Amino acid sequence: MKYMLLIYGNEQAWEQLDGEGRERLDRTHAELQVELRARGELIETAELPPQYARVVRTVGGVPAVTDGPFVETKEQLGGYYTIEAPDLDAALSWASRCPGASTGTMEVRPIWPMPYAA
3-state SS string over the chain? Predict the structure, then answer.
């Protein structure tokens, strides 16, 4: 089954890290990616920089686009891994090894295909 490992972090905490701290996190991500690839379980991973986010809301049938994200929280979605894992326990294990688990929050969700109209 496919799982999305969502990485939520505090942008201010990231900015306060020194070069060595950032390099350590980057290295840990790289090591995790190498292991996931070697096991054939990594589908995709990407960084999602919050400063480039846009929010779309449709009000009264009219879409409004604003700079975002504007979520009332200290942590923002900053990246993700899409993996193939045999079960939820395996996906949770991978998430616990991600640097995001020690510097922020990891959210794990199963990916279910969207139904398409014929």
Answer: CEEEEEEEEEHHHHHHCCHHHHHHHHHHHHHHHHHHHHCCCEEEEEECCHHHCEEEEEECCEEEEEECCCCCCCEEEEEEEEEECCCHHHHHHHHHHCHHHHHCEEEEEECCCCCCCC
Q: What is the pLDDT of residues 45-63, one digit of tens each?
A: 999 988 888 888 898 999 9
Whole-number Å distance between alpha carbons of 113 and 2: 10
| CA gap 46, 113 in Å, rounded | 20
Per the document, the length of the chain is: 118
CATH match of 2-110 with 3.30.1330.40: no
For the segment 69-109, what is each residue's pLDDT rounded down to a tens digit? Answer: 666 667 788 999 999 999 999 999 999 999 989 888 999 99
